[in-house]
Amino acid sequence: MGRVKRPWWLLAVPALATVTLSVVVWTAVANSADPGCSLDGIRPYVATLTVEPGGDAFRSGLRTGDIVDIRGLQPAVRYRFATGLFVRHDRLTIPVLRHGRSLTFTFIAMTRTPITWDSWVAYAGNLWVILFATLIAWRRPQDREARVVALLLSTMIIGVTLDVDNWATRWSALDAGVSAVGGALLPTAYALFVTYVMLFANPPSRLRLNLARLAYASSALAALSWSLYIYVLWSGVIDPLGPFESDQLAVCASAAMLAGLVCGIASLASTRGLERTRLSWAMLSLGSYYAFDLAFTILPLIWPSLDNSPFVDVMNFALPLGLTYSVLSRRLLDIGFALNRATVFTIVSVIIVGLFMLAEWLMGTWLASQSHVTSLAVNAGLVVALGFSSRAIHHRVDHVVDVLFFRKRHEDEQAILEFAREAAFATDSAQLLSGAIAVLESRADAAFVTIALDDAHGCYAGVSKGDPAILALQARHRPVDLRETRSGFSGEYAYPMAVGGRLVGVLVLGPKRSGELYAPDESNAIAKLAVDVGAALAVHALDADNMSLPQAIAQRLERLGAQSS
Fold first, then answer.
1. Which of 195, 283, 182 has its CA nearest to residue 223?
2. What is the mean pLDDT of the chain?
3. For a Cys-Cys bond, which of 142, 146, 224, 322 suits 285, CB 3.0-4.6 Å?
């Protein structure tokens, strides 16, 4: 099928997203702390403490109602309180004013913060998005749309994980710098979304160009605002607990998302046919995500008491659900085959591991009273049994996944294989050729199909026997990627029609009308059709003329080639 060059940087971005997500999850599980205190601004630079009884802050002597001057805090402590993220072993020194007396308290944050259900949902959704980005980058690195989507998804996850609400380590200064970068990456993802929608309906109108420029400018302003916000949290040049900075950040982010959505809608209105279908499903998944994100960014400005965190976390899980349906059911991008294999492998692994754990649990009581040798024997037998049953489980899961998500692709592949089986029973060569072309145009979605037959002189539809594609087909009897071969054939792939080591013809397929690639399973079915049709043509030639097979094939195919031309 040809070797696809995969740029390392395209795979490095989702790899970086995986690393940042792993750090965030590890911090949340093992290092996140809740000292049991928070600051509530009552006037510029002045805040009051809320202290939970029994917490780390309470044990140090701090009490609810203590007055804190924000400017008197160390930058690291001010940053921790402004973000609300604390790490275990953080040493916090807080000067307070209590009943007119100046007091200073120091404590170490040690109490772990429990992870809520919505956080786990968000982590699962983020990991899902990274897997999507990796598969797209691996499957379609040569496609501009795929590259932009992979970068968009990876950049978005990196921005989310490095966000000031998620990233926290033992080094507060490093956290501030990392969050400044992460905050700038979120508007970069908005800009990449605009880049994606502008790939459709080219050349763009003046209105769309102006909308795109507005969206890019809004994204740049949002990135700058985020960096300034982090600087304020660290330096305290403006009250970090005041509403000005956070509201300004929300307004800039909302403007960038709104400009991107308007640009996407304008691009959708300019598309037709297949382009509109692809962009419609992209807007339904990515566009809906940004629309909900926009709503949850604006609502706290109108309703300050609203806690939108659970909604945002669930939304992070809903994004890959929309992408899954778009890719699997609507073929937004051609990664269906890779997703099929990944889905089957995952389900089979879960079933086998689940059965093993269930059997272990059921036999736990009985094995506890048995000897060590008996326990080992039973466990070994269980592993062997599951190993031998894995093939049957894989076959069943593969069938279920095909039925649920890949029915159309599976039906098309079966139709191609069925025609290949019926080729041996064909009695008319011309009808066999026309039938093969028709089934490949309808079932493989090929833009065009050409069958070049041997003219008895080593030429195939005017392409000489010294052509690189002909030489490769004769040597390997495997499909040739014409995009990477300097050949006289015009198309995307060439399949050998070989009989007894002799190349009797070449089946040439043009690109798919949908713009997708030919999946490996689909290509194998096409290769079988090419071989079986070639064998049937050879038999027809042998039956028609009582002579040696090479002579009969050459003369018969020469006449068929003349008729088809």
1. 182
2. 78
3. 322
